[in-house]
Structures are given as C-alpha cells and as structure tokens.
Amino acid sequence: MTKKKDPENKNDSKIHVNVENGARDKEYKKVLEAIHAGGFCPFCEKNLMIHHKKKIHFKTKYWIVTENSWPYKGTKHHFLIIYRPKHLCHIKDLSKEAFVDRFEIEKKLCQKYKIKGGTTMMRFGSSHDTGASVEHLHFHLIVANKKSKDHDPVVGVMARLG
Fold it and tell me: Among 3.40.50.980, 1.20.140.10, 3.30.428.10, 3.40.50.300, what is the CATH number of 42-144?
C-alpha cells in the first residue's frame, strides 16, 4: 500500500484499494483505478456513493447495509455490511457492541429476504493477506443462486481469499 496526500485534510493517508484483487471484472477494475488515483477509501461513508451503484438499504449506529455493486458470480443476494463510524481496517479494533449489531443486521436480512442459508465472510486487515479489493472492515452476506449458469454445485460461489 502506498501513501498519498489527502486533498481534503492535507494529511498523509493510505490508498485503500487493491486494484489487482478487483481484476475479476473490467468495469470494477477501472473504478478501483480511479479510486486509487483519487487516494480515498471508497467504503468510508462520505465517499461511498461516489462510485457505488446500489442503494443503501439501511444504516445502524455501526454499519451501512447495501448490495455489492459487483457481486460474485452465481449469487442471488450479495450484501455488504460496511463499518460506518470511521475508517477501520482490523477486527481487533471492533467493539463487541458493533459485532453484535452486525449479527442483528444479518438476522434482519435473512428474515426480510427469506434467506434459508448462505455465507457470511468478513474482510479485515491487509488486502494482500485477504484477497479484498477494499481495505476497510466489512462483511459479505452471500446467498448462492442455484439456478444461475455460474452456479457450481461442488464449488458454490467463488471468492478470492488471500
């Protein structure tokens, strides 16, 4: 990760995207390149809607809930649950209250969308270790679409890990 001047704060800030990890889709890669050039975190609340194409479903004290603009292939639902109060990268800095709130969000999504089963995945820490394209603490709630041409009954939904 490189350092770049933050034009808004005039402070040094990290660039919070890994373009190589987002290369699964040409459009997404172009967006990540633009974010990288701009030097901002696309998941910090003040920046989220600059490139994000989906509506915000709801917010809590700790989280923003939306759908992934670039969902993994073969998904019926691909929600993002993004840490909201500040830029945060690592789970060690997450409060118990925030973690419990995230669990309540997943329960609410399961009830609303009648989700019978799915996968929860957390992205935290360096994108070089996690395979994430954005270095900002977030969770994925993913439900496979078994009717999709991309669904593989053996592999399921594919996500880059590390």
Answer: 3.30.428.10
